[in-house]
Amino acid sequence: MTARFEIARLGAHGDGVVDANGGHIFIPFALPGETVTAAREKDRAQLLAVIEASPQRVEPACRHFTECGGCAIQHLEDGAYRDWKRSLVVHALKARGIEASVGDLVACPPHSRRRAAFTARNTETGIHLGYNKAFSHTLVDIEECPVLLPGIVEAAGILRHLAGIIANTSKPFRFLVTSTETGFDVAASDCGKPTEAIRRAATDFVIKSKIARLSIDGEIIVEPVKPMLTFGTATVTPPTGGFVQAVADAEQAMASLVIGHLRKAKRVADLFSGSGTFSLQLATNSEVHAVEGDASALAALDRGFRFASGLKRVTVERRDLDRRPLTFKELNAFDGIAFDPPRAGAEDQCKQIARSDVPYVAAVSCNPATLARDLRILIDGGYALKSVTPIDQFLWSHHVEAVALLEKPKKRR
Fold it and tell me: Would the annotation count 322 as a binding residue?
């Protein structure tokens, strides 16, 4: 059904929201204050035309915007965009009854993302490489991408050719590209089992193209140079397809907040440590115990520490913190805690932190909703929330990082 709608506000995913008959209608690419026509289907509608545009509407930065599903909100003026993204954190905290000092958004500039999760597909018309259209399996070939580092975009032809070499299926497959200090780290999955001919052709092409590493379904096919990332004074080779923060400057902004808050701690527990993003920088001032469930990430962290110089002791422990969190008694051996869990958060671990006497806690999160839930647990356990800083590293999307800093007065013993 086609109708005219008045947009009341922006939703949490960047859609324009219409209040209608006690419910809500979500219209992508519409802005607050606009009058639009849209084709409605249940609680969603497809934008057809903007009749009265918002003064905050701007020209999108990319030709693929509205077609590609990577960005949701390139059409909003920058100041309003930053306010909206900060508000996602503010509203999540308020929903848990938390009034906090939420700082300004740490902005993410264009052309800064070092990691691209492409979809590739081999078809009768050739190899396609790009992003899926929003709410669809339709693949949009990418000719430009203003969020990515220019080097990734410039290498699109090389990457597309490599995807064509390794494609041993007609189905779409994942093609993850990370720009490291020594070259591209390419991790493909679900592209079909590579034959010996594919292995030889891929190896020759990777070497010729000066790609650092190619892996398929976790198996390293060829690694002419180890892909390297720097965390403080240490260099790390991340595991194939392993977690890496998307934007280097955003990573450093988070690390600076965490390190500054824990600067007085002699011993720090870094929970959900990954490959050492925070551990290896915290070790400049503190002894660090890094706890992580992924063995390959933990091994990368340990190697990075052993080949670094000038760091205090770093110990590692493989442990599934979702199933077996560190107990409050174990945590009391530390002066500070940093934790950066997946999107599901760290509910059970926070219940143990809340019972502990650890004076300084730095919580890093990519999900405001689970962060707010976890902070509520810590506050109810006696922690005071000192600050929350939202950080943007997924430009023009609804995703936002945040760093929350907490303190608990020391008990007299």
Answer: no
